[in-house]
Amino acid sequence: MAIPDTLDADSVTISSAQYSLLVQANREYLSLRHALVSGGVDSDTLDVLITNNLSLFPPPTCDDHCNSLMKTKPEDFSTWRSQSRENDFTRCRRDLHILPTIHTQPAYPPTPPSESSVEEGAEDGPLEATQDEEQPQSANRPYRSLILTALPPTATLFDITRVIRGGAILHMFLRERDGYAHVSFVEPAAAESFLLFAERNGVYIRGKKIAVAWDERQSYLTSSLANRIAGFGASRNLVIRHVRRYITADTIRDDLEHIHNLDVVKVQFSDGHAFISLNNIGLSMTARNCMHSRQKYKGMRIEFYPDECAQPLPRERSPKRVSVKRDGIPLSNRFDALLNDSDE
């Protein structure tokens, strides 16, 4: 294969590995930009942010690459080309991993005070809904999952959210036929506190006392989901701000029905907003991105909302003092009944 004596100034020769990475980077950029704009970020603001940060990413130079190509003899070109494919791919992957990290703030800060730790949607680009992995508990992982048994036949997830307190729920599901529910907390300490509270005071659903214990299968909180909870305030609850009149509870349920293992616990409308209670933090991120992708939700802000289960545990009831009435015993000396004639 012959090599031209001069390089065309209007063209650039790159390897297939480099081309694939460039195409991938372009698609990710377009996807991120689309998600940000869909979430309410102004296009002009986005252009300014991109321009201001271009200095952090200086354009690469190809002097060494081009010089090596010009010095290569025709008979050595095949060997050079086969070696170059792997070297270019390795170099590109390395360069992608050493790019500086830029930390950005969400376009819309969470409204509730405790929401400073959750979110991933339009403001931060399309977020991957990382599921908490349920698996047998190992010695080096904290316990965070409880099993609720002896539930009444008519119990619902909403009933469970009304009695769970002390910590945000990571994941929960109900097995009506088997009469039990699984509840995993974000914080292991919250699970332990609720278990102790249940043992001391009892927990009742629809007037029936239920049993609370550690589940044999514990849910594992992945680091990526933990970062989203701690960094963006992600929770299992969503709120649609200034919802349109044509959006109803049935509409929301129908739009989220296709998400596997997602349960809509409750949909409530208040002050022009729609509050959606779900059963899983990871799946709530999927639900949020799904709604953002639908035309009917365009222009509506969809945010995470604090978990009502994170409210403090109720104050424990003080044990009642039982007074025993002793008839026939004079109040002047309560020890008279213990005395006999010899003692006197």
Characteristics of this structure?
344 residues, alpha+beta, Alpha-Beta Plaits, five-stranded antiparallel sheet, four-stranded antiparallel sheet, 33% helix, 17% strand
Structure description:
Helix content is 33%, strand content 17%. It is built from nine helices and eleven strands. It folds into two domains: 82 residues, no CATH class; 213 residues, RRM (RNA recognition motif) domain (Alpha-Beta Plaits). It starts with 15 loop residues before the first helix and ends in a 39-residue tail after the last strand. This is RRM domain-containing protein. Keywords: RNA-binding.
SSE layout and pairings?
Elements: H1 16-38, H2 43-52, H3 63-71, H4 77-97, E1 133-136, E2 145-149, H5 157-163, E3 169-175, E4 180-185, H6 188-201, E5 203-205, E6 208-214, E7 217-220, H7 223-232, E8 237-241, H8 249-256, E9 264-270, E10 273-278, H9 281-292, E11 301-305
Antiparallel strand pairs: 1-7, 2-4, 2-6, 3-4, 5-6, 8-10, 8-11, 9-10
Keywords: RNA-binding
Biased composition (Acidic residues): 117-135
Domain RRM: 144-217
**Integer-rounded radius of gyration:** 31 Å
Number of strands: 11
> Helical percent range?
25-40%
Average pLDDT:
75
Global morphology? elongated
State the helix count. Answer: 9
